[in-house]
Design brief:
17 strands, 6-stranded antiparallel β-sheet, Tumour Suppressor Smad4, 17% helix, Rossmann fold
Length: 252
């Protein structure tokens, strides 16, 4: 099995990279079977985006802070760990947006697509699902659509639901909703197409963020899962992502 090692640009991750490269041969990414990513969840997402077009599996080890999407860092028996690793197939969200100048933007997101107000004024949004207007006006700081893998990230911080990995469900979650104040969001089938229009986008400018890609002054956004795109993420059997997401629902 050929490894390609990559690490975030901070001392803990770089030190781990040097240690692994002393112990195991590192191959160019084009000829590697597995990419071993060293860092935190943000760096792992960056690596996933980089590896997806190449169809290379990614095995992350935590050299960051939370590390929810990563395995524990250990240097011993890495070939054996990877031989035992279990694969999770992730499908990203495809975000298509048009800004107030008519410019189109596209990006993929494995965690979530989020909309945020850019100024002191709240955003005003109209939400459609599969061509049906479900909310004429949502006044809020923002709103997000997340995948099951991303449901324990920003979505959970915004009081959205944790979604089992195999559920084929997306979460639509408001961020600090002002009106309707008691709306907590919705669960949608993974095939749903969500279109969000900004109401008065020049007076109330709104940005959209797909994982780590941001576009500002947006007029309309379309979000749907892209089943044609996929990435295999590898986990130790005792650290499997599906079990970790399930456990998260029982945390005090």
């Amino acid at each position: 099995m050929k490894f390609h090692f990559t690490a975030a640009d901070y001392p803990l991750a770089q030190s781990a990279l040097a240690e692994l490269q002393r112990l195991y041969p590192s191959h160019p990414i084009e000829s590697a079977d597995v990419v071993v990513a060293l860092g935190g969840d943000g760096f792992l997402l960056h690596t996933i985006h980089r590896c997806m077009p190449k169809k290379i599996a990614v095995y992350g080890m935590n050299r960051g802070s939370v590390g929810f999407l990563l395995n524990p860092y250990r240097v011993d028996n890495l070939p054996d760990r990877l031989a035992r690793a279990q694969s999770v197939t992730l499908h990203p969200l495809r975000m298509s947006a048009i800004d107030v100048n008519g410019t189109s933007h596209e990006a993929l997101a494995f965690n979530e697509v989020s909309l945020f107000r850019q100024t002191r004024q709240a955003a005003k949004l109209k939400i459609m699902v599969d061509g049906v207007v479900r909310m004429d006006e949502l006044i809020c700081d923002g709103v997000l659509v997340c995948t099951p893998a991303g449901s324990t990230a920003y979505n959970l911080s915004a009081h959205g639901p944790i979604i089992p990995l195999s559920s084929d469900i997306l979460a639509l979650t408001p961020i600090s909703a002002f009106r309707p104040r008691r709306w907590k969001g919705a669960l949608l089938p993974c095939k749903a197409k969500v279109v969000i229009d900004m109401i008065d986008p020049k007076k109330r400018p709104t940005s959209v963020v797909a994982d780590d890609m941001e576009f500002r002054d947006i007029q309309t956004v379309e979000i749907r899962e892209d089943r044609k795109q996929s990435l295999n993420l590898l986990f130790d059997p005792e650290n499997h992502l599906e079990e970790r997401i399930l456990q998260e629902q029982f945390q005090p």
